[in-house]
Amino acid sequence: MIPELGHFALILALLIALAQGVLPIPAIKKRTAILLFILNAAAFAALTWCYVVTDLTVANVAENSHTLKPLLYKFAGVWGNHEGSMLLWSLILSLFSMMVALSRQRDDDLISKTLSVQGLLSAGFLAFILFSSNPFRRIWPPPVDGAGLNPVLQDPGLAFHPPLLYMGYVGFSVAFAFAVAGLLTGKIDKNWARLVRPWILFAWTALSAGIALGSWWAYYELGWGGWWFWDPVENASLMPWLAGTALLHSVIVLEKRDTLKRWVALLAILTFSLSMLGTFLVRSGVLTSVHAFAVDPKRGLFILALLTLYTGGALALYAWKASALESKAKFSVLSRESALILNNLFMTTGCATVFIGTLYPLLAEALAETQISVGPPYFHATFIPLMIPALLLMGAGIFIPWKQGDLKSLTSRLKLPLFATLIGLLLVFFLSQSKMTGIYLGLGTALWLAVTTIAEFIQRTELKPARMKSLPLSGWGMSTAHLGLAIALFGMIGSTLLMQEKVALMKPGDTLSIGRYELKLDGVGATFGTNYAANTAAIELKADGRVIGALQPERRYYPVAQQGTTEAAIRKSWRDDIYVALGDEDAQKPGHYVVRAYMHPLVPYLWLGYALIALGGFLAFAGTKKQLPSLSS
Amino acid sequence: MTMNKNITNILPLAVFLALIFTLAGLLLRPESVQMISKPMPPLALEGLRAEDIHGPALVNFFASWCTPCRAEHEMLKTLAEKNNIRIYGIAYKDKRADTEKYLRDLGNPYEKTGHDDNGKAFIDWGLSGVPETFVIDREGNIRLHHAGVLLEEHIDGIILPTLNELGMTDEK
Prior knowledge:
The complex is a heterodimer.
Chain A: H1 2-22, H2 26-52, H3 59-64, H4 71-79, H5 82-102, H6 108-132, H7 156-185, H8 190-222, H9 232-257, H10 261-284, H11 297-321, H12 336-368, H13 376-397, H14 407-432, H15 437-461, H16 465-470, H17 473-497, E1 500-506, E2 511-514, E3 517-528, E4 533-543, E5 546-551, E6 554-558, E7 563-567, E8 569-572, E9 576-585, E10 593-601, H18 603-632
Antiparallel strand pairs in A: 1-10, 2-3, 3-4, 4-5, 4-6, 6-7, 8-9, 9-10
Helix pairs in contact in A: 1-2, 1-6, 2-4, 2-5, 2-6, 4-7, 5-6, 5-7, 6-7, 6-11, 7-8, 7-10, 8-9, 8-18, 9-10, 9-12, 10-11, 12-13, 13-15, 14-15, 15-17, 17-18
Chain B: H1 2-27, E1 44-45, E2 48-49, E3 57-62, H2 67-81, E4 86-92, H3 96-106, E5 112-116, H4 120-124, E6 132-136, E7 142-147, H5 152-165
Parallel strand pairs in B: 3-4, 4-5
Antiparallel strand pairs in B: 1-2, 3-6, 6-7
């Protein structure tokens, strides 16, 4: 009964979404938006209920859940599969549409057209769910137990990774809807930017946090000892992030200086389109990757049709209407505007290189019928060289004023940060004696970014409490996010360039040394969890010759899914992470186990940096909320 | 001037439509790219040539920089050691020293290892990434092509059954 109610709510939601999209009656749109959210929430609640009681007559539950699964993962199971995750997408879409409808904004025409676009977006995704991914499909007879969730996905980090990512992806749909509405009304201006910037900040913050959680999950759960693999699906989230970062910065220019109108509109369309493309790549199976857990070509065609309709429609509108958008503001080559335009060029070019690297194998196959692969070497050779000047510019750009900068004052303000960076690099040289140029280039960039960010903050506030108090939240947000990126860079450099790795076949009593650590395998024993059996190793850990603790890496086996997972044991410190993974017992030598050990210096700074980046985005977002009441008065 | 402006405004749409046509073409492509039951493509690499491969056997493309390859490596070793299956390795765009270190550290399940430095074999064999694995029969025909990382379910579900069908016995 409950699944049928959920299904029925979805059908009603589709009709309401169509009404919101096409009926030219602005007065009803607020009510349709609320109703649309309620119906989506009802459908989502119905599916959640099926999961909590493990209703195995529902195919989706039978395929993805199990009576023995812990309750948290029964909840997470709702969106841990294709159908449920699309339902979550639709729910968030309708939530944001309702929030736009309920915000008390003056420009009724713009808001009403935005709600129409959101209605059409909702209708498309609801149709996709109903016609190709119905989560409420019944099966008879029901299986006894259910097929279980992919055990690799049974992790708290991952339970929250998709919702955050989707809030980011779908959050950009608001900017998209506003851009289309703005092109229709011809009003993409300061006021438009004020309305849309909070949404961009919100989406960007959620996407940043979502990517960070995914990266954290890869590092701690996949057992590969890394946090980014240039996997197509990771790239699919990086592309909208890069475009969103560009959008985030150019919309500031639009808000302050009423210029870059066409560019902002185009970026808003592209950012959400890249989010949809990401979904297409993950869900259609055109790219094979570890992430593509559920694939189906029919779904791919459906999403491709939606992408064509929405992005194609928006770009056609852009081609038709964009020339009506005039930007008159003048600014010099040396100005904040120019610096932000350069930032945008680097971000979009970076996005394009990732785009090419991700899609090139597909295009080559389609056009030339040859098959090629693009691996990390490509991304290291193209993306990273682009990001270094972008980061150097980022450090200098924050010192340049709007409209017209002055080279003399800029150089005098940059003198001290430059000096501090060079001192820092000399210290690194004397302390490490490293001969790797990459280290100096990387650390130099990170240091420069950190020092300039702090110096700009000091120059702006003089560290006086009164001035710090009056600094707008957006200023705090900028400094926090930029500093976060600098700190994350230290972690990235440490964990890639300074990383050490050892693999050994060990029997109890054997030792393995790596960096400043020494590992001694005391023994391996069998343990059991709720729905898995495991081998657990007991390892004694010594640092600099002193025993500092014990590590228990596990090799788990999930009988229902017939799949094994690696639970790495990690000892964290602010200096480095030591990361140990237990492999299978050697077939030839009973009692011998494969043990992999990685030492990742500075990794904690990566997570700290990610957290600060997301916090910075959130602060700037909170700042726009504080600002709004004064605007409408 | 206005003409120019309009052209730049249309450009994003044009690029997008070209992309969509290509992606649609890819999704709708017939599955004829398959090379199943056809003879092995040419292979003349340093360390491994087509005539070196004696089926029934596996041919596994890998690279030391490829993390999924690492994930399936243990399984390949089990296949070679426990099930006595001949596996030929092809290192794709990898530095010699890295390949050697990789096989030294993780163990070497390969009968022979070829070095596909310029990616020619990769293209001839129609790969889309590493790792990918082929099952070759006694006559040197491809019987199975698995793209992506090998999991236990693939080994038990398709690789071993195909090898058994080919009369893979324990003789080596």
